[in-house]
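It would be a great kindness if you could assist me with a short task in structural biology. A protein sequence and the structure tokens that stand for its backbone fold form the material at issue. I should value your view on which stretches of the chain appear to form regular backbone elements. The record follows directly beneath this note.
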Amino acid sequence: MNVNQLEIELNNLGVPQNYYSINGNLKSDTYTLNKVYSKWEYFYFDEKGNKEGYRTFDNEDEACKYLLEKLKNELKYR
């Protein structure tokens, strides 16, 4: 899975775009996925500026699948 496929899947699931940021600006209360050099990083950026659940991935596929699962779980509690 790549970022484009991830965004299509999130759109199909009805995940609001304000829930996440992919290679974008840091926004509070968002699940964030960024490419940093050859790695991918994931974290939840809370309203106080903390990075919660920080993880790194060696490839785009793993990172995208991880974010997809996180956001699917988030939808369960909406």
